[in-house]
Write a structure and sequence with these properties.
Blueprint: H1 2-19, E1 32-39, H2 44-59, E2 64-70, H3 76-87, E3 93-97, E4 103-105, H4 107-114, E5 117-120, E6 125-127, H5 144-148, H6 157-180, H7 184-192, E7 196-198, H8 199-204, E8 210-211, H9 215-222, E9 226-229, E10 232-235, E11 242-245, H10 250-258, H11 261-280, H12 286-304, H13 309-327, H14 332-347, H15 360-386, H16 392-396, E12 400-407, E13 410-415, E14 418-424, E15 433-440, E16 443-448
Parallel strand pairs: 1-2, 1-11, 2-3, 3-5, 4-6, 5-8, 14-16
Antiparallel strand pairs: 6-7, 9-10, 12-13, 12-15, 13-14, 15-16
Length: 458
């Protein structure tokens, strides 16, 4: 009985020790402000980082979440996900452009407009929110294609598409400005004219709420401000709060690497290399395992990006052609595969942005290397096919042999260091040197060396 109680107490102690560090409530009575930093391009990793931070902030009853921004912009899809998370948050979000020298350009400007409180550090800037990057095949400036295509109003088709995207972006930033009581006119100017502001100019234009040198001053200036939490007014009490920084976990760091479209494409190529090597050399194991992991990671990353599936299909088709070229040399398949891969890469992303664009300095050499390997493997395979066989019955033809014993038309010979049964049409005797002319059911057919197929000496 005592043993059972001791075991129960030990189990309770272990459970408490394991669960306490992950308790969402935190230390009883402690008021905290959580902080995360988005440093770099806005993408799937940034969206995931903010989503998890808001969840932790809600579980721990944090007073505010400080979102520190230093970004050149990024993907529109990820930006909209982050804005939706901020608008639905149960914890007030303070947007803070920092450190000095940082900026919140393009997508960062929209996110700052969405936060409940917006602030900037001295020496920072924001703006340049015009949507200018699109995926698909690049067109030459002033090309005839752009001149010939018109929309219903007679404008070039490219201008019509740009106008639609720009008007949508203006509507978004104006709606955010109206929700947070900020300068919507300047927001529209940032979208239409790519306008930018310094920290002091942004304060004068009522784009931000105040300027703060550090997080301590940030919390002091935010204290007492009234924010709108989904229609509910809430007064911030942030003065003197302890600030705890939430660092991104290993998965978010991994996501930030693999969602670079260039890394995703390279992972896909490595995956195909590994699987093909495993298929051609069964039992190696490691290439197959590494290839499968890389291929799955590449497909997962591409699924998170706004990709054009036609471009992805062309890339896969190109890789398939290059693999076939390695086993069945035609040159045509190799060149066609490289062309299909490059066209697919050009069409891969529907929407591009800072940090999320195909780099031809990376993709070009990768395709050239793949084509070179395919052609090299094909040339070796073609040469191997033309060489005489080295194993099996065909490899025995023409091999020298020596008569060991003989009776009538049959006996035994020594060929390639082994004893074989043999037969011959011409008379031979033990000790004679002969050559193999055929193999049938492990029986060699031999003849005297230097005698032709017609029996005449050569």
């Amino acid at each position: 009985m005592k043993l059972a109680r001791v075991a129960l107490l030990a189990a309770a102690f272990v459970a408490a020790a394991v669960l306490l560090p992950f308790s969402p409530a935190g230390t009883a009575g402690q008021r905290i402000a959580l902080s995360i930093a988005i440093d770099g391009a806005i993408g799937p990793a940034s969206s995931r980082q903010l989503e998890e931070a808001l969840k932790v902030a809600a579980e721990r009853n944090a007073e505010v979440l400080i979102l520190q921004l230093d970004t050149p912009g990024g993907l529109v899809t990820s930006m909209r996900e982050m804005i939706a998370d901020i608008l639905a948050s149960r914890v007030p979000v303070i947007g803070y452009v920092a450190p000095a020298g940082g900026h919140a350009a393009s997508a960062g400007t929209y996110i700052l407009y969405a936060t409940h409180v917006a602030a900037m550090a001295p020496g920072t800037n924001l703006g340049a929110a015009t949507p200018v990057e699109f995926g698909g095949l690049p067109s030459l400036p002033g090309g005839e294609k752009d001149k010939d295509q018109k929309d219903a109003s007679g404008r070039p088709a490219g201008d019509a598409m740009m106008a639609k995207v720009t008007n949508d972006a203006v509507a978004l930033i104006r709606s955010l400005a109206e929700l947070r009581g900020r300068n919507g006119d300047w927001g529209e100017k940032a979208v239409r004219e790519a306008a930018s502001l310094s920290a002091s100019a942004a304060l004068q234009q009522h784009v931000i709420d105040f300027i703060a040198r550090d997080t301590t001053e940030l919390l002091q200036l935010a204290d007492g401000r009234t924010v709108d939490m989904a229609g509910r007014k809430e007064v911030l009490a942030t003065k003197g709060l302890a600030v705890e920084t939430l660092d991104p976990g290993w998965f978010i760091r991994l996501l930030a690497v693999i969602t670079d479209p260039n890394v995703a494409v390279l992972l896909m190529l490595i995956g195909f290399y590994g699987i093909v090597f495993e298929v051609t050399s069964p039992g190696a194991v490691a290439p197959g395992v590494i290839g499968a992991i890389c291929l799955v990671l590449a497909l997962y990353a591409l699924d998170l990006l706004p990709i054009n599936y036609t471009g992805l299909a062309l890339m896969l088709l190109g890789v398939a052609f290059l693999i076939v070229e390695a086993f069945n040399p035609t040159v045509v398949l190799g060149v066609g595969g490289a062309a299909a891969f490059l066209l697919g890469a050009a069409m891969l992303l529907k929407i591009e942005g800072p940090g999320f664009a195909i780099s031809w300095a990376v993709i070009g050499p990768a395709v050239a290397l793949t084509l070179g390997l395919a052609l090299l493997a094909g040339s070796y395979l073609w040469a191997a096919r033309r060489n005489p066989p080295r194993i099996g019955g065909e490899a025995m033809r023409g091999q020298p042999a020596q008569i060991l014993d003989w009776e009538g038309r049959e006996g035994h010979v020594l060929a390639l260091g082994e004893r074989w049964r043999a037969r011959a049409d011409d008379p031979v005797a033990p000790g004679d040197n002969v050559e193999v002319t055929a193999v049938s059911d492990l029986v060699l057919t031999v003849r005297r060396r230097g005698v032709g197929n017609d029996g005449a000496k050569q």
